[in-house]
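Page 42, continued from yesterday. The earlier attempt failed because a stray header line got pasted into the input along with the sequence. Redoing it now with the clean sequence only.
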Amino acid sequence: MKIPGRTAYIIGGAIVLLILFGNSGFRRLVRRYWEINKLQGMIVQLKKENVLLRKEVYLLEKDPSYIEHIARRELGFVARGEVEYRFKK
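This time it went through. Structure tokens are written below.
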């Protein structure tokens, strides 16, 4: 029995699609691949954040002027004898 060329390609393509998409293992593999890529991106981001936090810890431990800067910026502290001016935007 001989199958015409075009029909053979259609049947072959259908078999390949069934193997790839009819198989839950392949779908799971693709999902894991995307999950790994997402997690690797998160790792890179967390490493950058870790570097910044280590720098801030160092400054908080070693630099009193940095502590003063943080207190002024986040808590609104004003040193004794200073006058604070506020402008409306």
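Notes: The chain has a mean pLDDT of 88.
Reminder to self: strip header lines before submitting.
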